[in-house]
Amino acid sequence: MWIKKYDFDYGRRMLLEKTIKGVAAAGVLAPLWPLIAKAGDASKAYPDELLSIEAYTKGKVKPGDVITANNVEAVKDLLDPIAYQQVKTMGRKINIVESTKDVTKLFPASYLEATLKNKGRAKLDSVGNVYTDNGEPWIGGNPFTDPQNGVEAMANLTLSWGRHDYSMYAVRDWDIAPDGSIAYQYDFVWAELNTTARADGKVWNGKKDLLRYQSVWFTSPQDTAGSSYLNTWYYDQRKFPDLYGYLPAFRRVRQFPTNQRFEPLVPGVTFFLSDAWAAGDPMLTWGNYKIIERKPMLGAIGPRNFMGGYNDNYERTVHGGPKNQTFHDVWMELVPECIVLEAEPTGYPRAPVGKKRIWIDVRNGMYVAYVTYDRRGAIWKSFEPAYAQYSNDKVTIKDAQGHPAWSWVAAASHDVQANRMTRFVQAKEVKGGYQSGYGEGSQDVYNKYLTNQAIARLGTA
């Protein structure tokens, strides 16, 4: 008789044991990061049940299948609670594909190179800020490849949101009312420039005291066009960002209070600045971080989610809800190991959010699902991203270094208490002629997009 070395539940038992014991090295059969450094292949770190949706569900779901209300119970424990309800009661469908084993497809190439180069050099100081072993601001990549606690896991999300030193996202947004109709449609542009924690290892313009500049400006429709905002983040994660905005009706730039982070920037949208990348606030203005679980999860992370070649402007087909307008089509796969992290907004006494829960893929440190709860403890909103390497069977898009680009491609924010959905895509181009891209090139992006004078100029353009 042939006896299997690892029985069916071995992987899940080991993840549970790691959670209970607080053992935090990623991987089950072997430590993950030495395998990534050697060949970029994560498959030898996990048993089959954590790499194959067919094995995990004992044949109930396999790649090529579609998750619907008829079979969602087979993957209920692999979805956040809002995604499960969307499928169960709202007509959402999720396409299932093979798991990605090549970890190089889960990062921008330069960011992965920086992560490997700088592995082991990050330290938390006495208050929880991240510095190198010689006391300098972080020098690029994920600071903690094997997070030992919740703050380290959060640092991987916070220090470099989009994993590029500079990104500009051309965003097309649709806001769906409870009756399923499109209540609002916006075009806007989001730009983020890291001054520290850059993959190139440099400090931009000597700004060691800062982490990033981030701006957003709306270009459509006419009654919203010109609304623009600028966030300036300090490196010290105890400090609140400076938030300024230009509103065309007032024709001036004014400073907004910190608690504006928990309000929509324009009517109809359900996401807040606080929701960005599941890390929209400085990480030390939140607290009570705890890793509550390690588990597999379904995540939209593979190349099929990139719509280049399928749609010229990278937009997506939609389905579900009362008028078949509520959900993006996405392609999800089994992520073998996620950290499930919880935190509370300790720095915001009037925040409407009571806590957030984040599911983080340990292979790249990026979140695949995010849910917030209100002050009563009731579930409130989900923020679900989709990512892809920008290379599929139709086309390959290169980043500034000549590698296949990697970024988020779409996201959906569902306020289940109001039953309002905001869904948006990173388009190739939006109204105003702005295009998505990754890298500063020869542009003076700071003066063009990331100052108070810039947001005023963008607001009147």
How would you describe the overall organization of this protein?
It comes from Solimonas marina. This is DUF1329 domain-containing protein. Pfam families: DUF1329 (PF07044). This protein has 461 residues and is α+β, with helices and mostly antiparallel strands. The chain has a single domain, classed as Clam (outer membrane lipoprotein receptor (LolB), chain A), CATH 2.50.20.10. It has eight helices and 22 strands. It has helices at 10-21, 32-39, 53-56, 81-90, 109-117, 150-158, 445-449, 452-460, and strands spanning 66-67, 94-96, 122-124, 130-132, 166-176, 182-194, 210-220, 228-234, 242-247, 252-255, 287-299, 318-319, 327-328, 331-344, 353-361, 367-374, 379-389, 406-415, 420-427, 429-430, 434-435, 437-438. A hairpin with a 7-residue loop joins β8 (228-234) and β9 (242-247). The radius of gyration is 21 Å and the shape is globular. The chain starts with 9 loop residues before the first helix and ends with a helix. The mean pLDDT is 93.
Low-confidence stretches: none
CATH level-two architecture: Clam
Termini separation (Å)? 76 Å
Oligomer: single chain
**Fourth CATH level, the homologous superfamily:** Lipoprotein localisation LolA/LolB/LppX
Q: State the secondary-structure class.
A: alpha+beta
Give the mean pLDDT: 93
Please, how many helices? Answer: 8
What is the CATH C-level name? Mainly Beta
The name CATH uses for the topology is: outer membrane lipoprotein receptor (LolB), chain A
What is the chain-wise order of helices and strands? HHHEHEHEEHEEEEEEEEEEEEEEEEEEHH
Pfam family, one: DUF1329
Protein name: DUF1329 domain-containing protein
InterPro entries: DUF1329
Organism: Solimonas marina
